[in-house]
Amino acid sequence: MKLVLEPADITAIADAVMQQLAPVLAEFKALASIPLKSQQIQASIPCISAKPRQDMLKRSDLPEITGLSASTIARMESKGLFPARVQLSSKRVGWRLSEVELWVDERRQAA
Q1: pLDDT tens digits, one per residue of 70-102
Q2: What's 65's domain CATH number?
Q3: CA triple 85-106-70, angle to 5 deg
């Protein structure tokens, strides 16, 4: 059996579907317009971790881990006395946590 629909039938079906979906779409639009905090969004999406990956460190993490100022770290890095930075993107650099931890451990042993 072959079903043949006329354009007017297709339009009527589409209108009926839209009438059924209108309340759902309105509710979705209302929910989508509510601003959520970043943590709420991350907590509701299972594939996004609430904590960033910790295998790479930001520049601001280094003084806390090493006990050195940012300027001392930069000076030591330029002389090759500190682990080298890794270019993460055109405007972002990071340091490997494992290399920085090893460097800190070696300095403690030498002290």
Answers
A1: 999 999 999 999 999 999 899 999 999 999 999
A2: 1.10.10
A3: 40
